[in-house]
Design brief:
The complex is a heterodimer of chains A (225) and B (506).
Chain A: H1 2-21, H2 25-45, H3 53-81, H4 93-113, H5 127-144, H6 148-169, H7 176-203
Chain B: H1 2-18, H2 22-46, H3 63-90, E1 96-97, E2 105-108, H4 111-130, H5 134-152, E3 155-156, H6 158-188, H7 191-196, H8 203-208, H9 215-233, H10 241-248, H11 251-279, H12 282-304, H13 310-331, H14 334-362, H15 373-376, H16 378-391, H17 398-412, H18 416-441, H19 465-483, H20 487-502
Antiparallel strand pairs in B: 1-2, 2-3
Helix pairs in contact in B: 1-2, 1-4, 2-3, 2-4, 3-4, 3-11, 3-14, 3-19, 3-20, 4-5, 4-11, 5-6, 5-11, 6-9, 6-10, 9-11, 9-12, 10-11, 10-13, 11-12, 11-13, 11-14, 11-20, 12-13, 12-18, 13-14, 13-17, 14-16, 14-17, 14-19, 14-20, 16-18, 16-19, 17-18, 17-19
Classes of the chains: A mainly alpha (225), B mainly alpha (506).
């Protein structure tokens, strides 16, 4: 079992690195779908809880959302926005991968020597560092990309990390993880989807780098179009 | 009672989307607000008796919750009345010319969506104030994000869309981090207790068993609460969405967000602080709160100095006051915090509502283009001036009392550096706001800057009574609280302070 779980963690790390290093949004959406399946599998394999019906249902819902529903919605948004790749991100793709590797190292070291341990007996030593790394990589992706779709991919990656963290820390508390999943669905589908539609219609592009009208020093900016 | 407070706005929100007649919907908005305010007032009258908790104690009334619920309720009533006059002017049904970029035309959001989202907003804020379960509180805060995003995007043009996108992305990420805080708190519960379900994430359970919590995980939880809810509450350096959202949203939405929503997010931080205090390491959370508070005040001071957009100026003033609230709790002035939260909400609501009148009258957000306000619009000018004096903590308004209490507590707690920084920053912010507000109220404007189109001669706009009365009442309330604190208010403030510094809620 431990071998399988470790394999899942490695696969998860690899998918985050692909996402950090790829300019093609379509590929990013597919990799994120794969990542959703990997996170689901890892969640089932975690040693610190028994596989009860509740765990299976949570993981199933999470995986279906990540691997089926979100990719379909994102691919549709991609078609509407008519973009394929982000050419000039604030942080380059090679640099992003290097930073990703740095974050991973920092998480592994930090958790090993920081003295933070999971409250369970027999928890896998990689659980917490990998979850923390996925969260940080998602955060990094959000700030290092200008394309709204890429930022959403980063947000979803962050959510994958949180899902993993939740399953390894808070499984005993009734309903907490379910609340998290439920609200993510709302944020994703209802709001970001709708906002994305309006952005592509208003700005003729989903590059949020063009959003510069709001500032504290209006004199120095060319306001408006 | 508790169920009613939450369900009435939610049901009405559903109805608002369905009702087609504008007058009926506006009447419903005001009456729901009035009913909500009446129920909240009932809680005050009955205090310290409180209604029975519902949902296994997940929803219940406690003193800090009641305090923030009251600010939500009062501001919502003011905003609902204001909305009647506001919509009468905004609802023209056809594309309108933008006041900042003349060549830009835009439509407004349908009024039904606006009213529905307002009511959802009220329902979710009520939920946050009454949540005793930290997971449920998180759901409530997230729900406020969902409900307010369409409100910020009321004027459908690219600037408000930019503000909405920033708001959504930054706050969603912040709240995702707050969720990690919940997980960390769950991890701090001893295994045996958690598995038997004896300790849940309900505040009462946590506080009663706080000594058994794993300190490392509880401290991690507080850090994530502070960062996560701090983002939503506008603590620097996570405040960046706030000035944009507040300046682009309609004024009544800004009033609600600034006066009510930020408080609700602060409640999330306070719950974490309560757990830390009860768990026996109050110093940890206090220290963080003090420094985040001072940093927020400093950032606000920098951006208020020389600010030319009066709505952004008010937004940064909210960052400042959130900083003061954090500082007050951190240094142990919990009573002053409660009073300050109350005063800030009411007066900031009044100021934002007044700024909406200014915007309608002068068609500009630029402070340098408005002059001689007192002569042209005596009532609005007086409100603007009184609001400025109150928000900067001049006597006899209640914010003077609370800011004085915080300063005194800082000195008593033997923190001279923090106290000096606090006083200097308050002074700088006073000067910054004065240099923007006083020329608007009195000045005649430089002659060579007289625009040909004539912003100097005010257009013949007469604000309707529904837009004037709410800010007057709110400002009057702050003045009243400054002159005389009723016994009921003192009692609730004292109980809130006891809950925040003593750990176990009374």
């Amino acid at each position: 079992m431990t071998g399988l779980l470790d394999a899942a963690f490695v696969l998860l790390i690899l998918t985050t690195l692909v996402l950090l290093g790829s300019s093609r949004i379509r590929l990013g959406i597919r990799v994120l779908a794969v990542q959703g399946v990997v996170v689901g599998a890892a969640a089932l394999l975690l040693p610190n809880h028994h596989v009860t019906l509740r765990v299976v249902v949570i993981v199933l819902i999470g995986t279906i959302l990540d691997a089926v529903v979100f990719p379909i919605l994102l691919l549709r948004a991609l078609r509407t926005a008519r973009v394929e790749r982000e050419t000039d991100p604030p942080v380059g793709y090679t640099a992003s991968i290097l930073i990703g590797v740095g974050l991973l190292t920092a998480c592994l070291w930090g958790m090993k020597y920081g003295g933070i341990t999971l409250p369970h007996e027999g928890a896998n030593p990689l659980e917490l560092p990998v979850a923390a790394y996925t969260v940080l990589a998602g955060l990094f992706l959000i700030v290092a990309r200008n394309n709204a779709l890429n930022q959403i991919l980063g947000y979803l990656m962050l959510e994958n990390g949180i899902f993993l963290a939740g399953l390894s820390t808070a499984m005993e508390v009734p309903l907490l993880i379910e609340m998290g999943i439920l609200l993510d669905v709302f944020i994703m589908v209802m709001v970001m989807g709708v906002a994305l539609f309006h952005i592509s219609r208003t700005f003729d592009s989903i590059e949020v780098g063009g959003m510069t009208a709001l500032t504290d020093w209006p004199d120095q900016e060319d306001v408006g179009k | 009672m508790i169920a009613g407070l939450i369900l009435i706005p939610l049901v009405a929100a559903g109805a608002a989307f369905a009702i087609r007649s504008h007058p009926v919907r506006r009447a419903m908005l005001v009456s729901v607000a009035a009913v909500h305010a009446a129920l909240t007032a009932r809680l005050w009258v009955d205090w310290p008796a409180r209604p029975a908790p519902v949902l296994d104690g997940w929803l219940a009334v406690d003193a800090p919750g009641l305090l923030f619920l009251s600010t939500c309720s009062a501001l919502f009533l003011a905003a609902a009345v204001y909305a009647v006059g506001y919509h009468a002017r905004e609802d023209v049904g056809e594309p309108r010319r933008d006041i900042e970029e003349g060549g830009l035309f835009f439509r407004n959001e349908p009024e039904a969506v606006f009213a529905g989202c307002m009511l959802l907003f009220l329902g979710s804020m009520t939920g946050v104030s009454l949540s005793q379960h930290l997971g449920l509180l998180w759901v409530g805060v997230e729900a406020t994000t969902l409900a307010t995003a369409p409100l910020i995007y009321y004027h459908r043009h690219h600037r408000s869309l930019e503000a909405t996108w920033k708001y959504l992305l930054i706050c969603s990420v912040g709240l995702a981090l707050a969720m990690i805080g919940n997980f960390a708190l769950a991890a701090s519960i001893p295994r045996a207790e958690a598995e038997s379900g004896r300790i849940n994430l309900v505040l009462g359970d946590l506080l009663a068993n706080a000594r058994a919590l794993n300190p490392a995980w509880a401290q991690i939880a507080f850090v994530f609460f502070l960062v996560g809810y701090g983002t939503k509450m506008g603590l620097a350096p996570l405040h960046t969405w706030l000035p944009d959202a507040h300046s682009e949203a309609p004024s009544l939405v800004s009033a609600l967000m600034s006066g009510a929503l930020l408080n609700c997010a602060f409640l999330g931080v306070l719950r974490g602080h309560q757990v830390c205090t009860a768990a026996g390491f109050p110093g940890f959370s206090s220290e963080l709160l003090i420094w985040f508070g001072l940093l927020s005040m400093a950032v606000a001071a920098v951006f208020i100095l020389g600010q030319t957009d009066f709505k952004r100026m008010l937004a940064y003033s909210s960052v400042e006051h959130m900083g003061i609230l954090a500082l007050a709790v951190g240094c142990g002035a919990a009573y002053g915090m409660g009073l300050h939260a109350l005063g800030h909400s009411l007066i900031k609501g009044s100021l934002f509502l007044t700024s909406g009148i200014l915007l309608a009258a002068y068609q500009t957000k630029n402070v340098t283009k408005i002059h001689n306000l007192l002569a042209d619009y005596p009532v609005t000018g007086l409100l603007w001036l009184a609001g400025f004096l109150a928000i900067t903590g001049a006597p006899p308004f209640s914010l003077f009392l609370s800011e004085f209490t915080v300063g005194k507590t800082l000195l008593d707690a033997d923190r001279p550096v923090a106290a000096a920084a606090y006083l200097v920053l308050l002074g700088v912010i006073f000067l910054g706001m004065a240099s923007a507000v006083l020329p608007m109220v009195h000045g005649t404007g430089p002659v060579d800057h007289e625009p040909a189109g004539g912003q100097s001669a005010p257009p013949g706009y007469r604000p309707p009574l529904t837009m004037l009365v709410p800010p007057i009442v709110l400002a009057g309330a702050v003045l009243g609280l400054g002159l005389y604190l009723p016994v009921d208010v003192r009692e609730v403030l004292r109980d809130a302070a006891a809950a925040l510094s003593g750990g176990v809620s009374p």
